[in-house]
Write a structure and sequence with these properties.
mainly alpha, 19 helices, 69% helix
């Protein structure tokens, strides 16, 4: 019903745009409403309708950078790459261009397999917007597309440093690390991402990788991997001391116990030497009585769906209440203290270059 209503209003609105554009009688309210319809159609995947509205709006507001960027994105999402390039390329020479135009154009060029052009666009964007997490994420995706995992990861980590609250870089970095036998940073980045405001698409898959990452971490906890930073060494040694708590297997109860004890000892003995915001946030969860619910929400489905369902029947609405609390207490990293080793030596060991066939 609401879709047909939107369509009816759009027909009326588009006719009004066409008829009244010449005498410029459209009000600001009408333009805002038309823009919202364009955004709604784009979110619904009806790019043809969205493109039609954007083009009419641009006729009325030819200098509007946001409208042109969103039109380029609609072309990109509809796989009309030639029109996306035609729309977005001229924007890069304009003084009020945003990082988004560079990001979408680079993504379009990557989709066209124009790797060189995509890299040039992203690098130009980073010259202008040097703290753009989105552009570092894009540059990482370009390298990942060529199976250059080490270079991709370095860009995602650079993006985390440049713009700590841009969530996608955490997910990308986590996924790369969680596929190795040294998943510590994969665990830390995944738990950071899942605690931040983010697009929840793919959360279930990431939680599975995170749960498996904990198993891998404890399976290899006695390995001595060089080079290791003092922070990494302190984390590993403390978890090694606590590893008997998971000797009978990784599960929600055991992980909750070992992480709670880890955080209590970390905050007492190591927090001042190695300030790390994720640990501060998780300590806040303990102090507010949410650690058990947080752990169940994070790991429960991967330990056992039946046990997870049974837990929810016994703890009615606990996860819902946690989500309500979390909505006002998201993890929002304000700074990044460089506590990891991203040297070429370590990256090449973890992600060796694949031989050309």
């Amino acid at each position: 019903m609401w879709i047909s209503k939107i369509f009816t209003v759009f027909i009326f609105l588009s006719c009004g745009l066409a008829v009244r554009a010449q005498d410029s009688l459209l009000s600001g309210k009408e333009l805002v409403q038309a823009h919202r319809f364009a955004e709604t159609y784009a979110m619904m995947g009806n790019y043809k309708m969205a493109i039609s509205i954007y083009k009419q709006l641009i006729e009325l507001s030819p200098e509007n950078m946001q409208l042109k960027t969103e039109l380029g994105n609609a072309y990109y999402m509809s796989a009309d790459y030639n029109n996306a390039v035609t729309t977005l390329s001229p924007l890069l020479d304009m003084p009020n261009v945003t990082y988004k135009a560079y990001e979408i154009l680079a993504a379009t060029q990557l989709a066209q397999k124009n790797i060189k052009e995509s890299k040039i666009t992203t690098n130009k964007g980073l010259t202008k917007f040097e703290r753009s997490g989105a552009l570092y994420h894009m540059r990482g995706n370009i390298e990942a597309n060529q199976e250059h995992t080490a270079l991709a990861l370095q860009n995602w980590i650079n993006g985390i440093e440049a713009q700590p609250q841009y969530a996608p870089n955490y997910k990308a970095a986590a996924t790369a690390y969680l596929e190795t036998t040294e998943p510590l940073w994969g665990i830390l980045y995944a738990e950071s991402y899942l605690a931040m405001p983010h697009d929840s698409t793919g959360d279930a898959e990431l939680k599975t990788k995170l749960y498996n990452g904990w198993t891998t971490f404890f399976d290899h906890i006695t390995d001595k991997n060089e080079p290791e930073t003092p922070f990494e060494s302190a984390v590993r040694k403390l978890y090694l001391q606590l590893s008997p708590s998971v000797s009978d297997g990784i599960g929600v109860e055991n992980l909750t116990m070992v992480k709670t004890r880890f955080l209590m000892e970390w905050m007492t003995d190591h927090a001042s030497a190695y300030p790390f915001e994720l640990f501060n946030y998780q300590d806040q969860l303990i102090r507010n009585g949410w650690m058990d619910v947080y752990s169940e929400e994070l790991y429960g489905m991967n330990e056992s769906k039946n046990q997870y369902d049974a837990w929810n029947r016994f703890h009615i609405n606990d996860i819902h209440r946690f989500h309500n609390w979390q909505a006002y207490h998201y993890f929002r990293p304000g700074r990044v203290t460089v506590l990891y080793n991203k040297s070429d030596e370590k990256m090449n060991r973890l992600f060796p270059k694949k031989k050309k066939r």
